[in-house]
Design brief:
alpha/beta; single chain; 6 helices; five-stranded mixed β-sheet; Nucleotidyltransferase, domain 5; 34% helix
């Protein structure tokens, strides 16, 4: 289950923890694209929040995807993301933004503990996840 009411009587998700998901996005992704990627990347998982680069968090697609899921969306500056050591830096992100990564850094900032899902590309969107804060 992506998002949803944590108090429902639904069967438990395969992972016992809710996920804090970091997103690496190209400009102007649609909410539908983001939601489809989340379902594919995290089938049956509960997503507690989304996080990405601040300029992407201000775009309609990520905002609308978070609204559909009923979760908060966090945006971080490149300066803040650059201070987070990531295990899988991206040469493409270094070339484009001058930082090692967005998805893993955002997930590590918004969640708790180590990465549960390292950076991976699904449908042209980069995702990574940690456990969500309680």
């Amino acid at each position: 289950m992506i998002g949803g009411d944590r108090r429902s009587g639904a069967a438990p998700a395969p992972c016992r923890e809710e996920l804090a998901v970091g997103l690496g996005l190209r400009p102007d992704p649609s909410a539908e694209q983001i939601l489809a990627v989340l379902v594919q990347a995290f089938p049956g998982q509960r997503i507690a929040c989304l996080a990405t680069l601040d300029r992407r968090a201000g775009e309609p697609g990520p905002r609308d995807a978070a609204a559909v899921l009923g979760v908060p969306l966090f945006g971080y500056s490149t300066e803040r993301l650059a201070r987070v050591p990531v295990p899988n830096p991206s040469e493409r992100v270094v070339a484009a933004l001058g930082i090692p990564g967005v998805a893993e850094a955002a997930a590590l900032l918004v969640g708790t503990g180590p990465l549960l899902v390292p950076r991976r590309v699904v449908g042209g969107i980069v995702v990574a996840a940690t456990a969500a804060h309680d």
